[in-house]
Amino acid sequence: MENTRCFANRFSDYKGALLPGQGAEAAVPVVVASIDKILQTVPIDLSDCDGGLYDGPAGVAYMLYHVSECPLFSEYRDVYLKTAKQIIDMSVRYVDAEPDKNMRAAFLLGGAGIYAVAAMIYKSLGLADFVKPLTKFRNLWEVCAPIHFLECGSDELFVGRAGYLCAALVLKQKLGIEDYVRKGIQHKNLSNEICRATRCGAAHGLSSVLQMLLSYQDMLSGAEKDLVWQSVDFLMNQEQNCNWPAELGAIIERENELVHWCHGAPGKLRAVNAHHPVPVPWFRKPQYLDKCIRSGELVWQKGLLKKGPGICHGVAGSAYVFLLLYRLTGNSKYIYRAQRFAEFLFTEEFKAGSRSVTRIYSLFEGLSGTVCFLVDLLQPDQSEFPLFSVFV
Ligand SMILES: [Zn+2]
């Protein structure tokens, strides 16, 4: 029976050599052409700026920033950054006027992410103005500090506190301005809420909340850390054959299981590895790396997804799992697998059989995320899922 969610992976597996013809010489023109295509479709009107970093124009600005940071694209740096600034300036104007302050505080869907990316782009351009969006970002902590500031669950990644913390982590990583944003963050609200979360996926549920808590564990008390680790163990124990159900207690149906960043194994991998740079808990739980590796096998089998090229529930999101596993293990097999997934994105089979994406320019569902992946494949030692690092 044909799998409705993914293409069959007919690629032979790694036999000791990476694919030829995927070096910078071949890949840079492909990336540049993809960016040209994206820029032809991204809206340039203030009224079309909704969707935040997830699927709004702001995600394109982030992609341009990311590409401009890569030395292989130095000749394009100026023009990409200038375009990024035009797009993010428009997004900032849009979100400044957002009447719902909770949406202004949202990371992937609202203002917090847009302000953070604006600060990064301004800084790259050498503009002292980067302090302005940074100040707007910092002031948002007051919005998301009250424990139930959202009705839909105040802790998740897209619009809740985990998202705010994630944006702060990106700022720490890219701008080195940790204390500037950390002072106002109330982590305790987050850890109190852990046990209430009932959805498991990275995008909306427990795993991204836990990842953020692990990323800030130096700010937690001993008892809170124990609670976080108990929750991590609990989540890991929900595994069913290298995957995790989208909701606690659900039974995964093997034939058509979800293997997405937003639901299922790929996003979970990142959650498990959030503590990687912290050696003590990492060695306390060596079995987590084994779980990651085994989940990576599932992604190799079922990760050629039919929902488009993107990073949220598409082929590039699956391929980011291999780049993460490469960084964790140093095994070139994972670069090879990522190369195969990159290759697949340009096949007729993929073009003919994958679902069309409404906003093809978008960072999470469309080509901007794919471009980030293709660039990261050229620099696998620095690769990381966009805006969601586990190596800070
Ligand atoms: Zn998704």
UniProtKB/TrEMBL annotation:
What keywords tag this UniProt record?
Metal-binding, Zinc
> Which GO terms of type biological process are on file?
carbohydrate metabolic process; peptide modification
Query: InterPro entries from the entry?
Result: 6hp_glycosidase-like_sf, LANC-like, LanC-like_prot_euk
Which GO terms of the molecular function aspect are on file?
A: metal ion binding
Q: Which residues bind Zn(2+)?
A: C262, C312, H313
Cellular component aspect of the GO annotation: plasma membrane
**CDD domains referenced in this protein's UniProt entry, alphabetically:** euk_LANCL
Would I find Mitochondrion among this entry's keywords? Answer: no
Signal peptide residues are none
| Family listed | Belongs to the LanC-like protein family.
Q: This protein is called what?
A: LanC-like protein 3
**What is the source species?**
Haplochromis burtoni
Source organism phylogeny: Eukaryota, Metazoa, Chordata, Craniata, Vertebrata
